[in-house]
């Protein structure tokens, strides 16, 4: 047992040593390597009052470093679900990724069995805490309609960067409200990249992988086949949109059986305009434009299509959300037909490619 643990620790050391940690401009390291003692000091020996959150992978603490203001330090539980492979993947991904809507990785510690990640501190917590009544969310008040659209747009921009701009492109694979963090002003950033992996490249349309993610957010095609595509993230994004619109959790075990799964609950409501209000967060108190609501629900519906090839491209989603956000709470002259037209063009182009291929 001990030899296996030592082998894993050696693997971490070698992998991280081989990473290109220079930013390519100044020659300065893009991430720092911290000692375990430094992070003990930063968190006052991982004091319980410093805990920001806890999950299956470990605990996140608020810490203070001499040359930083505040930081978030994720200490991985050796018995948790995030192993050596995911730890290395997270460091690798965030060393390469630089975008305003991705949480910045400041550094890491890989010392014996201790594996920790140091991130910029996001002072307004997670979207989950705001939507579902955690203490921080209650303190800051209800997210208004425009803020919810802005959060969705920020997340879509982050996904567009991962899917389109990064080389090689990445599938995020664990999109959910607890992984969307907010800084002051409600700027949203994606965090937690342990499940991210390189996506299909060139002529490949999918990659086959073990199934990872969170129940309630994973695309059914990914669960059933293990085939991971960029459209897997699009389905998860649709679930997040439903959560932003409804104020309901993707899966809520406190509800009756027929209301536990948000996507299953929402599908018949989405198809019937006369019932749309049933899915809207009552905390919004009718302070939203009806046409803007139809547009957001339309986008979510397209993202949640059970046929992955019919889900929209992330670039089209960004364009659609920019349009909805630009209108804000004003009365809008168009319904979500604008997005439908964009999607139809993309779908027609896909069908054209398929004919040529066949």
TrEMBL record:
Keywords: ATP-binding, Cell membrane, Kinase, Lipoprotein, Magnesium, Membrane, Metal-binding, Nucleotide-binding, Serine/threonine-protein kinase, Transferase. ATP binds at residue 74. SMART domains: S_TKc. It comes from the Eukaryota. Gene3D superfamilies: Phosphorylase Kinase, domain 1, Transferase(Phosphotransferase) domain 1. GO terms for cellular component: plasma membrane. Residues 46-324 form the Protein kinase domain. The keyword Metal-binding applies. It is found in: Cell membrane. Belongs to the protein kinase superfamily. Ser/Thr protein kinase family. This is Probable serine/threonine-protein kinase PBL5 isoform X2. The lineage of its organism: Eukaryota, Viridiplantae, Streptophyta, Embryophyta, Tracheophyta.
């Amino acid at each position: 047992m001990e030899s296996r643990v030592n082998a894993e620790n050696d693997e971490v050391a070698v992998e991280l040593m081989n990473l290109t940690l220079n930013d390519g401009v100044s020659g300065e390291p893009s991430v720092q390597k911290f000692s375990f003692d430094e992070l003990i000091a930063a968190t006052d020996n991982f004091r319980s009052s410093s805990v920001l959150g806890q999950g299956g992978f470990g605990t996140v603490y608020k810490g203070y470093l001499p040359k930083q203001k505040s930081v978030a330090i994720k200490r991985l539980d050796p018995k948790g679900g995030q192993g050596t492979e995911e730890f290395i993947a997270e460091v690798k991904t965030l060393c390469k990724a630089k975008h305003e809507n991705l949480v910045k990785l400041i550094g890491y510690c890989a010392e014996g069995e201790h594996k920790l990640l140091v991130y910029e501190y996001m002072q307004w917590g997670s979207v989950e805490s705001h939507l579902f009544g955690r203490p921080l969310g209650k303190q800051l008040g209800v997210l208004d309609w425009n803020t919810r659209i802005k959060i969705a747009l920020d997340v879509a921009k982050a996904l567009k960067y991962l899917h389109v701009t990064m080389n090689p492109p990445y599938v995020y694979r664990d999109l959910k409200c607890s992984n969307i963090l907010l800084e002051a002003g409600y700027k949203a950033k994606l965090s937690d990249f342990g499940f991210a992996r390189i996506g299909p490249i060139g002529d490949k349309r999918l990659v086959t992988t073990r199934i990872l993610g969170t129940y309630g957010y994973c695309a059914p095609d990914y669960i059933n086949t293990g085939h991971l595509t960029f459209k897997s993230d699009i389905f998860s994004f649709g679930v997040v949109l439903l959560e932003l619109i409804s104020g309901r959790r993707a899966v809520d075990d406190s509800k009756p059986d027929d209301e536990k799964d948000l996507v299953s609950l929402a599908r018949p409501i989405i198809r019937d305009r006369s019932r749309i209000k049933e899915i809207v967060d009552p905390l919004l108190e009718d302070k939203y434009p009806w046409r803007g609501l139809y547009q957001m629900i339309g986008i979510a519906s397209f993202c949640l299509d059970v046929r992955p090839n019919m889900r929209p491209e992330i670039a089209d989603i960004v364009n659609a959300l920019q349009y909805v956000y630009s209108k804000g709470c004003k009365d809008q002259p168009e319904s979500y037909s604008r997005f439908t037209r964009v999607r139809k063009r993309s779908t027609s182009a896909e069908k054209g490619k398929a004919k040529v291929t066949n």
